[in-house]
Amino acid sequence: MNALLDPPGxxxxxxxxxxxxxxxxxxxxxALRGRVVAIHAFQLLxxxxxxxxxxxxxxxREMFPERDLVVLGLxxxxxxxxxxxxxxxxxxxxENRIAFPVGxxxxxxxxxxxIPLTMRAYGxxxxxxxxxxxxxxxxxxxxxxxxxxxxxxxAIGALLAEAGPRA
Length: 167
Description:
Low-confidence stretches: none
Mean pLDDT: 87
Largest sheet: 6 strands, mixed
CATH superfamily: Glutaredoxin
CATH topology: Glutaredoxin
Number of strands: 6
Order of helices and strands: EEHEHEHEEH
CATH class: Alpha Beta
CATH architecture: 3-Layer(aba) Sandwich
Strand content: 15-25%
Number of domains: 1
Strand order of the largest sheet: 1-4-3-2-5-6
């Protein structure tokens, strides 16, 4: 589903993050009500994430004022767990000059299900995934795979133009 959900979607589930890297990490998703939130779910060994998703998230951070749009990364590892630990992620974020907070998705608590908890709560199919949350805290876009910048920018602009509580 790569279009804005209309009517607005369900309330966005909480982010179940083991830890945050980078400055400006939110206390919770609910604490960001009043601003549009873009969550880019990625894995650092995912070619689509590295070549498209992460650069797109960086462009979002550069294009929209933070008072209106909060950009968050979510490193959600569902494969190659040993190769993508926090130390490797820190180096990746530094080398790629990621200037927005990145949460490490809480690993699965079920040995039979390797899908991390936030990934599972949102029903993500893989990475990259873009989630857009409106000012009220409702999930409004859930897009798997690469999307054109113009389509993402238009979706963000539409959410910013909607009435709703402002920060």
